[in-house]
């Protein structure tokens, strides 16, 4: 059995009765965020450093706004702010001059409703009647009861047990609950002993090479189109009081569409690996991609840095790992260093061998390959030195099967099939 977590979305059945209490908590979370944001700015202005998560908790634990929420809920607000500042600080160090620090949560004279998180100490679950008691902070207890009693409803196939966290999320019109549960999943036997290598990229989000000689490309054009559409000037409006309501909705929709793409891609890759009897796959580990060999920050240029920092390779790999584990497939993260420069046929490394239009040419071997597929083959060889068992001709390597994401079906299919659909 595999022990992991799953997040289930739940509708609040008694929304009218609890919306005011949840609203009070959401507003309080925004106020606490703003207090911590101001404190962090003062620290940055005085020292050039940002306070750590532990520093924020120590400095603000006695603040009035901290006592509006259950202590663990307040801690989570401060943790999120620290994570946001750390992400901005890393981008700044890596040369992304366009990166902005986290802003204040305020719109005019009003505070928006922030997501509120309850951890286990603030939750009591009545699984028999689908009810949750969510604790309030000391300040809010004085006005009504000590807790918010929510009745929820999930999909018929979902069993809610072992709740680790509850998040109340405002979608612009109403609240919904995200229930984070610990679950045990039966692990299947590995589909086989074959291997696969995955090269992650920006133009082609993913290239995969199997040891039977098959190779596939997964372009990221849908993500680029979505980002371009939902960050247009009419959507991406932001003033002194933060993003507009329309901008917030556009960002939420963009985030949901990206989530669906990544989940669908991870699921599809696992299905393809099962069909190819893959028991182990190697994925390029890009955790050091922002660094030079000497440890200095790598500057990809203004445009390159923006693309790189929006590239959620770690999140996708994490999704792939847990989906693969359910089917007994092991995922190894391997360094991608030099895999794009090395010929997968002869092993020679040449900087100039990668030519335009994504082709890799090895004159000494007489091979012409898709550059991303060449990288995927080299990554596969990080876990096995066995040569491919199938056809490795120039035509097969240079023109792999391309799979496109169909937004209507929400699934991936070969490009010729997607192109023929209405």
UniProtKB/TrEMBL annotation:
Annotated Cas12f1-like TNB domain residues: 313-379
Keyword Hydrolase attributed: yes
Region (Disordered) location: 90-115
InterPro entries: Cas12f1-like_TNB, RNA-guided_DNA_endo/Transpos, Transposase
Positions of the Probable transposase IS891/IS1136/IS1341 domain: 178-290
Nuclease is among the record's keywords: yes
GO biological process, one term: DNA recombination
A matching Pfam family: Cas12f1-like_TNB
MF terms in GO: DNA binding; endonuclease activity
Alphabetical UniProt keywords: DNA recombination, DNA-binding, Endonuclease, Hydrolase, Nuclease, Transposition
UniProt superkingdom: Archaea
Family to which this protein belongs: In the N-terminal section; belongs to the transposase 2 family. In the C-terminal section; belongs to the transposase 35 family.
Protein name: RNA-guided endonuclease InsQ/TnpB family protein
Species this chain originates from: Halorubrum tibetense
């Amino acid at each position: 059995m595999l022990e992991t977590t799953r997040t289930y979305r739940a509708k609040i059945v008694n929304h009218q009765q609890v919306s005011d209490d949840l609203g009070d908590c959401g507003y309080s979370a925004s106020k606490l965020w703003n207090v911590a944001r101001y404190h962090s700015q003062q620290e940055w202005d005085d020292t050039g450093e940002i306070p750590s998560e532990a520093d924020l908790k120590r400095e603000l634990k006695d603040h009035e706004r901290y006592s509006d929420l259950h202590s663990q809920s307040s801690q989570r607000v401060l943790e999120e702010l620290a994570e946001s500042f750390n992400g901005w600080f890393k981008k700044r160090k890596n040369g992304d001059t366009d990166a902005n620090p986290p802003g204040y949560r305020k719109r005019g004279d009003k505070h928006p409703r922030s997501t509120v998180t309850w951890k286990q100490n603030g939750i009591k679950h009545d699984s028999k009647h689908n009810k949750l008691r969510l604790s309030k902070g000391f300040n809010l207890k004085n006005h009504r009861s000590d807790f918010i009693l929510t009745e929820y409803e999930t999909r018929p196939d979902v069993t809610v047990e072992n709740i680790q966290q509850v998040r109340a999320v405002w979608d612009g019109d109403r609240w919904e609950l995200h229930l984070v549960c610990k679950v045990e999943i039966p692990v299947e036997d590995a589909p086989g002993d074959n291997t696969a290598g995955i090269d992650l990229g920006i133009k082609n989000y993913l290239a995969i090479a199997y040891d039977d000689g098959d190779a596939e490309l997964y372009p990221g054009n849908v993500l680029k189109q979505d980002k371009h559409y939902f960050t247009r000037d009419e959507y991406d409006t932001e003033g002194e009081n933060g993003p507009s309501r329309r901008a917030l909705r556009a960002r939420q929709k963009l985030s949901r569409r990206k989530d669906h793409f990544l989940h669908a891609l991870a699921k599809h890759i696992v299905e393809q690996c099962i069909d190819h009897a893959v028991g182990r796959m190697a994925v390029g580990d890009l955790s050091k991609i922002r660094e030079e060999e000497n440890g200095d920050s790598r500057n990809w240029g203004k445009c390159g840095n923006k693309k790189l920092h929006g590239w959620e390779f770690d999140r996708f790999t994490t999704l792939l790992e847990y989906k693969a584990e359910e089917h007994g497939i092991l995922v190894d993260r391997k360094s991608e260093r030099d895999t794009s420069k090395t010929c997968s046929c002869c092993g020679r490394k040449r900087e100039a061998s990668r030519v335009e239009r994504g082709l890799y040419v090895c004159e000494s071997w007489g091979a012409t390959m898709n550059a991303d597929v060449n990288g995927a083959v080299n990554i596969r060889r990080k876990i096995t030195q066995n040569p491919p068992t199938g056809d490795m001709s120039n035509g097969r390597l240079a023109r792999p099967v391309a799979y496109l994401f169909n937004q209507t079906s929400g699934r991936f299919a070969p490009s010729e099939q997607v192109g023929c659909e209405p």
